Amino acid sequence: MITLPSRPILPALIMVVAMVSAAFGGFENTIRPEDWAAYRDRFVLPDGRVIDDANHGISHSESQGYGLLLAFSAGDRGTFERIFGFTRIQLLIRDDGLAAWKWDPAANPHIVDVNNASDGDILIAYALGLAGETWREPRYAQAARTLAAAVGANLFAEANGRTVLLPGVQGFTPPDQPKGTIVVNPSYWIFEAFPVLAELAPEYDWDAVASSGTEIVAAARFGPAALPADWVAITPKGLEPAEGFPAVFGYNAIRIPLYLIRAGIRDAFLTRFGPRNAQDVPAVVELTTGKVASRLNDAGYRMIDALVACSRGTPVPDDLLHFTPTNYYPSTLHLLGLSYLASRKGKCG
Amino acid sequence: MRLIYGAVLLILAAAVGWLAATRLPAPDPIAVVDAVSTSAPAEADGGPIRRVPQPVHVIVAPDTPSTPDAAYTPDAPIDLTKARPAATAEVGPAAAAPGPAARPARNAPVVDESALRYFARQGDQRRLDAEIARLKALYPDWVPPADPTAPEIFVDTELDELWQLFSQGEYPEVRSRIADRQTREPEWEPPAVLIELLDQADARIRLTNASNAKQWKTVIETAAATPSLLTCDYVDVLWRVAEAFAKTDRPDRAKDAYVYILTNCDSPAERLATVQKAVDVLAETDIAELLSYDRGGEFEEVADTLLRRRVGVTAEDPELTSSPEELARIEALAADGNAADALLLGWYYYRHKEPGKAVDWFDKARKRDPESAKAVEGYALALIDLKRYADAEATSYDWNEKSADNLAAYLIAAVDLLAVEPPLRISEPVLQRMAEVIVRVKSLQGGEQLGWYAYNLGQVRTALRWFEIVRRWDPEYEPAAYGLAVVYWALKDKARVNALIREWGSRSERIANIGKPGRTELRGSRPIVDVIVDAPPVRTVREDPAYAYVEPEIEPEIAPESPVYVDAAPAATGGGSSGSCTGTTPTRALSPESALRRGWCLMDLNRPAEAAIAFDIALQSTSSKTREDAAYGATLANLRSGVTDRASVTAAAAPMSAKRQGEVTLSILSQQAVAAYADGRYVETILALEERARLAPEQTDLMMLRGWSYFKLGRLADARRIFEAVARTGLPEGDKGLAAVAAEQAGFGGGRF
User: Fold this and answer.
1) 3-state secondary structure chain A
2) What is the rounded CA–CA span in Å between residue B580 and residue B582?
């Protein structure tokens, strides 16, 4: 059990938000055309569907959101348009304006779970906001505003005096959870998106959400490895790995440092992540024991560790600077890392 | 209100030109949806122009204030009278559509003829004319090509490709190429007509997906934003919009959509399907209105559907009836072998107290549809009405876990079967499975009825156990308390009867009156013969899972200190000297009197199984004295070999003297107590000991048995009282028991010791 500090660590966060704002719009044309073409040919279908090939070729709001962000970062308007078209007519059908999260080509109807996933919503709104602004396309800007407002209206919740981001509209608050408990996913806080969303839907307090996110990432140190869990329960007593989910630092949480770095957040807690020595690779960690459940050797995962190490002064290894698509998820993380490096002209400081 | 909408409809008939220009090349509704994922080309509409459709703007217009509508409050209500003026000169998407679509009309220095060529190539004269009219209105100096259908060399081949792709249903590709071209040529604008058509195609797919996902608000908002979809070309869209209104409690709006289709659309199949869909969502008066749009016998099928629905209502309510003609029509419809009509008739006759007919129809229904749980449920209920309880139980058992209704039907069958008077002989497997279901679902009536069944068969202790189980399930269930009171009365346990009267007397007259002559309603119709165990049910019930439920699942770790066997040296030893029992004559060849002697002899040698055979032969004696002796001997022999049930049977086989009867009864009760304890049946242990205690003082070993039984049942105060009494006699077992009670009360004994 970890107790949140009685007062949010506000001063640090005001600085954080200021730094994030400086990074706004910095990712345009940061993916090399050949890297993007390799990704697009592998994972984007002609109808604009971005496939998660490790999960039976399904798609979800997250894959569509990543696809939009990468297409924007590669400056590929044609593909962005395709992905947006699919996202809009297939997923953005909920009455509340959010995206249905899960789409299965083998099912009919294709939407197999109409619940939303807030990281997908945020990625889509963020990418649309960037594209609408940069490319002066009002259709994107309008869709971004609608979606950002839907996130603000439906997914902000009060927990222990903070404004937190619910992972989805359904399932993460009482009565689906025990009384007084809210389950969150720290890796759904895509910090770089909040300043953009704040411009799109200024009526909601995005700073407060960004603040609770960094606070949770800092406070959620579970087990001997002192790492956050993929799913964290916020209870009146504090934070703990959420019941009903594996207590692991897993495929969700592994991208937290990537999001922190891309958002320009380099608080001390970033040092908790990343390699412990030169041979170390990222891993899924069982939090109760602190033991490694499985090592993640894919370049996309190693890229995250490399960026953390880079922020401490170790250059990114050459082999990670070249992109070869593997599976959807690590490939996406890899391109997001490369995009970040390009936006910083290869420097990590 | 509807009349006003009708008038607006008429005004909007003039908007036909605009509709013609914006109509998609009518792909199949499903094909459009799938086109996104499969890229299957949509079919071009080469067929004859159908009756000119009108926009069904009324469907999505906001409600009047008199019918406030929380779910649908668009910020900008669609007002087609403003957005789409009827004047021909202004008709067209460029004039009507906001945003980018409006741009090219004024800015383009060259008249964009691509849409015109596209319609010409499609052979769509109607839309070609509309596009010519539109362009003329926008560019008064423009002269249409002399032969727009003739092949032409296109100035803008890229744009031509876009139209080509569009006609193939490759909408994402078209969108993508437009975006790419705008990147290359920032000044370039796509034709407004093309964008309008793409938006319409997207809206249709999105609306379909939203409808499939039951996102009704999105359905209605999309329709409101895309009125060009609301025409006879897209009847599927109209159906989905109607459904969205119906699902959001706006049946009048749903009806408007259906009326629109029936007024304007000509496809016979779509018209029939429209009324059939309406039947599912609208009230009967509304459907009657829709039927008035019949153009000549086209909705006859629907009349049958409606008839089924009406009979469906009367089949649910015994107060309502259907006419013989109506029923005859359904029977005629059922003649084709369908299960649904048979089921409907089954329910009708069941609810109207014609179980014979109901059974026949349900039987047909379940044979026609072997998966139908409702058919089995109805069949069982009708059988119950016919008092064919055993058939009902047998039919419905396999289905009892299918649904709550099937379970209820099964329980009714089981309870009724058990309640038949005089009791039916029910086979062991059937009793077993009834008990299983009753225990699984904790059916109070079921458990109670098992209690009475056992009671009426003379199995008073089994009855007692069932009533106790039921009382544990629900301590406030009076019939369980009443059953217990009757059983205790039968067991002459006045203390417990009085306790129950104290607890329940004020609330239950029949419990208060237990034992008063002429007042107690004993539900048993057979005399109570307590000890005689002659019916198979007792074994069944003894082994039923109720045990597992009722009794603590802790194996006793100690046996009573000394086994309770009756001493083998009864005072009334009938003769024979020790050693003489090994004569050469086989036991079976002995005379009854000799067999009696050998029996006692074998008992002396502690060979009870052989003794029992000898006593059996002795029972055939003509002498009543010998028979009495033999019965006593056989009882003791069986007791000693642990065959309690046979002992009790034998005890009844011949009259015995009161003294012997007493000894036998004591032995049987002792042995029953031990056996019950060994089986973990502690309540029964105590009952046996109570009965025994009324006949003779309790020995210390039996006191320990009683103490441990109390302990197992969690009656720690009673257990301590007994153990203290034993401890006072100086036996260490008493102290052991006291220590266990203390540990249990301290909370760490865990019931073990």
Assistant:
1) CECCCCCCCHHHHHHHHHHHHHCCCCCCCCCCHHHHHHHHHHHECCCCCECEHHHCCEEEHHHHHHHHHHHHHCCCHHHHHHHHHHHHHHHCCCCCCCCCCEECCCCCCCEEECCCCHHHHHHHHHHHHHHHHHCCCHHHHHHHHHHHHHHHHHHEEEECCEEEECCCCCCCCCCCCCCCCEEECHHHCCHHHHHHHHHHCCCCCHHHHHHHHHHHHHHCCECCCCECCCCEEEECCEEEECCCCCCEECCCHHHHHHHHHHCCCCCHHHHHCCCCCCCCCCEEEECCCCCEEEECCCHHHHHHHHHHHHHCCCCCCHHHHCCCCCCHHHHHHHHHHHHHHHHCCCCCC
2) 6
Q: Look at residue A254 and tell me whether its pLDDT is greater than 80.
A: yes
State the Cα angle at B632 between B627 and B634, rounded to 5°. Answer: 90
The CA-based angle B236-B241-B243, given to 5 degrees, is 95
Confidence label for A2 from pLDDT (cuts 50, 70 and 90): low
A62 labelled catalytic = yes
pLDDT band at residue A21, thresholds of 50, 70 and 90? very low
Q: Do A81 and B206 touch (CB under 8 A)?
A: no
Contact B658, B636 (CB under 8 A): no
Distance from CA of B212 to the nearest CA of A (A): 7
Is A4 contained in some domain?
no
Contact B202 A81 (CB under 8 A): no
Chain B CB contacts of A48 below 8 Å:
172, 176
d(CA A132, CA A223): 43
- Mean pLDDT, chain A, whole residue set: 91
ipTM score of the complex? 0.91
Residues in a beta bridge with A164: A157
8 Å CB contact of A109 and B209: yes
* Mean pLDDT to the nearest integer, A294-322: 93
Q: Given this model, what pLDDT does residue B42 score?
A: 36
* Average pLDDT, integer, range A322-337: 98
**pLDDT given at position B694:** 79
Phi-psi category of residue B207: left, alpha or beta, with phi > 0 → left and psi -120 to 50 → alpha: alpha
Judging contacts by C-beta atoms under 8 Å, the chain A residues touching residue B183 are: 77-78, 135
Taking the Cβ of residue B161 and every Cβ of chain A, the question of whether any pair is shorter than 8 Å is answered with no
Q: Nearest-CA distance from B196 to chain A in Å?
A: 14
Q: Which two tokens stand for residue B493?
A: 């346990």
Please identify every stretch of chain B with a pLDDT value under 70, giving residue numbers as ranges: 1-109, 149-154, 517-584, 641-658, 744-753
Segments forming the whole domain that contains residue A282: 10-343
Q: What is the pLDDT of residues A64-109, one digit of tens each?
A: 999 999 999 999 999 999 999 999 999 999 999 999 999 999 999 9
Question: What Å distances lie between residue A32 and A29, A38, A73, A342, CA to CA?
Answer: 8, 10, 9, 9
Chain B: closest CA distance from residue A135 (Å): 9
* Terminal Cα distance for chain A, rounded: 34
Which is catalytic among the residues A35, A52, A119, A137? Answer: A119
Least confident interval from A27-31, A156-160, B116-120, B326-330: B116-120
- The CATH number linked to A237 is 1.50.10.10
Summarised one tens digit per residue, pLDDT across range B565-574 is: 222 333 333 3
Residue A129 lies in a domain: yes
- Which of A46, A114, A138 has its CB closest to that of B172? A46
Number of domains in chain A: 1
CB nearest B202 (choices: A49, A78, A85) = A85
How far is the C-alpha of B589 from the C-alpha of B579, rounded, in Å?
19
Residues B580-606: tens digit of each pLDDT: 465 667 777 788 888 888 888 887 777
Query: What is the structure's pLDDT at B656?
Result: 62
